[in-house]
Design a protein that fits this description.
Helix content is 52%, strand content 13%. With 471 residues, it is of the alpha/beta class.
Length: 471
């Protein structure tokens, strides 16, 4: 069994590499004036690393006067990761959050930041839009946000940040500093070196650095690595996710262009996924409808899903049409939803798209989530509560969540549900089963192939229900 599992992992590794090569070819080359700067970052990450635990990393963070956290600017996970780090900090002193993308000279309390919807980052996003999770985490502390962006080259921004911290840190122990800067700034000879020159040795957290993923492989045994004395690598988003976000970031300012970019990424992903699973090539192309098209998307849904979803209260996560190659998304899809979209195209290209009812939809959902978890082994689990809040208006979410929680472990009670209850049950159970199957060490290629390809009678329902109940 282990050999077959290794064969599947090898196939998935090839899929990941081919898709990453295809996506990365569409990104402009690193400008010549930044090549040496980037190389220093690569040199830092080429140092020997040892596997560690999240708790070891958090202990180092809690002891530190200064923490430098990397920011892959197009990736939202970079900011939610920052929020997780802030939540680990004790409330023993004030916090200064220095943001590379906030203009130099900007200083405000966390309360002011949470109340101000018009403070702009240099990317065009608002501070509140980009950093809401981090600001919410900071609200539990005595915190101040300072801008560090200055025009000029990357070295100049390193120097400007160090000067700001030097002024703040005249009384050691009074404040803890967190600086959120682009990946390459965190090379040992860049921002960390400038901070050490003024007398502070920082802890450095590299979020999802591609070179560490390269060494760890598609399914690392752990997601935290220590690099030397002060540097840590924290794996959350695979390299594919970085490239997907980077490509979509190039066209994010026009919703139509953003939708087309997502469709293009999903098209190549579905083609390579079909080849990897050795099933028929997709005969359709996913259409991505973004936020403003919710009412149009809602009209295309089957009647029972029109009832389940509220026209005036769109979800906050993507939704797939059950049988058409159509997805609505409140923003540019991340890697998880692009891979789910690729799997959805395979479902829509098979006879499964003709089938209606609870069981066919459960198969479609499990297959989508299974593929997503195989590509990202650290994909976070969705709780029933958070899922209900993402899919339903607050007035309905709590009641529906309670009903599904009460019956989720008893399939004999999965009858007579309202359209809203059935929608939430399928979404929840599909995610649970996909995650559970992806973690199964005996998973084989044929187990994935049967989802879109096996007929109604040929599908192993007993095995799937056993997986669901185990999950």
């Amino acid at each position: 069994m282990a050999a077959k599992r290794n064969d599947l992992r090898a196939e998935l590794s090839r899929f990941e590499r081919r898709l990453r090569d295809a996506w990365s070819m569409e990104v402009p080359c690193v400008p010549q004036h930044l090549q040496a700067y980037r190389q220093e970052w690569l040199n830092t990450l080429e140092q020997p690393s040892t596997e560690a635990t999240s708790e070891e990393m958090y202990r180092a963070i809690r002891k530190a006067d200064l923490i430098l956290v990397s920011d892959f600017h197009p990736l939202r996970r970079s900011r939610t990761g920052l929020a997780e780090i802030i939540r680990q900090l004790p409330d023993d002193r004030g916090i200064i959050l220095g943001l590379e993308l906030l203009p130099h000279g900007t200083t405000l309390t966390v309360g002011e930041a949470l109340r101000s919807a018009d403070i702009q980052l240099v990317t065009g996003q608002t501070l509140l839009e980009a950093y809401a999770p981090a600001l919410q985490a900071l609200s539990q502390h005595r915190a101040t946000i300072v801008g560090t962006w200055v025009d000029g080259n990357a070295h100049r921004r390193d120097e400007a940040a160090a000067k700001i911290w030097a002024r703040i840190h005249r009384k050691p122990g009074r404040f803890r500093g967190i600086f959120h800067f682009g990946d390459w700034h965190l090379a040992a000879d860049h921002l960390p070196a400038r901070m050490e020159e003024i007398g502070t040795s920082p802890i450095v957290i590299h979020q999802s650095p591609e070179p560490i993923w390269e060494r760890a492989g598609i399914a690392p045994s752990g997601n935290v690595f220590r690099i030397g004395e002060k540097h840590w690598a924290w794996l959350q988003t695979p390299p594919l996710g970085l490239w997907a976000n980077h490509l979509q970031d190039l066209s994010k300012y026009e919703e139509e262009n953003a939708g087309e970019a997502a469709e293009h990424l999903c098209e190549s992903a579905s083609e390579y996924l079909a080849e990897t699973l050795r099933i028929s090539a997709p005969s359709c192309r996913l259409t991505v409808v973004l936020k403003s098209g919710w009412q149009e998307f809602h009209r295309h849904l089957p009647r029972h899903l029109q009832t389940a979803f509220h026209l005036d209260a769109p979800p906050t996560i993507p939704v797939f049409h059950p049988r058409l190659p159509l997805m609505w998304s409140p923003g540019p899809p991340d890697l998880t939803h692009l891979i789910e979209g690729a799997a959805h195209c395979l479902n829509c290209s098979s006879s499964l798209h003709l089938e209606v009812g609870f069981k066919p939809e459960l198969r479609r959902q499990v297959f989508r989530h299974l593929c997503a978890h195989l590509v990202n082994p650290f994909l976070a689990e969705s709780s029933l509560k958070s899922l209900s809040e993402q899919l339903l208006p607050p007035a309905i979410a709590k009641q529906t969540c309670a009903k599904i929680d009460a019956i989720s472990q008893s399939p004999n009670l999965w009858i007579g549900l309202t359209d809203t209850e059935e929608m939430l049950l399928l979404a929840y159970v599909g995610r649970l089963a996909g995650r559970k199957m992806a973690a199964n060490r005996d998973l084989e290629l044929k187990n994935l192939q049967q989802f879109p390809e096996a007929g109604t009678r040929g599908f192993d329902w007993d095995a799937l229900m056993a997986t669901i109940l185990a999950a």
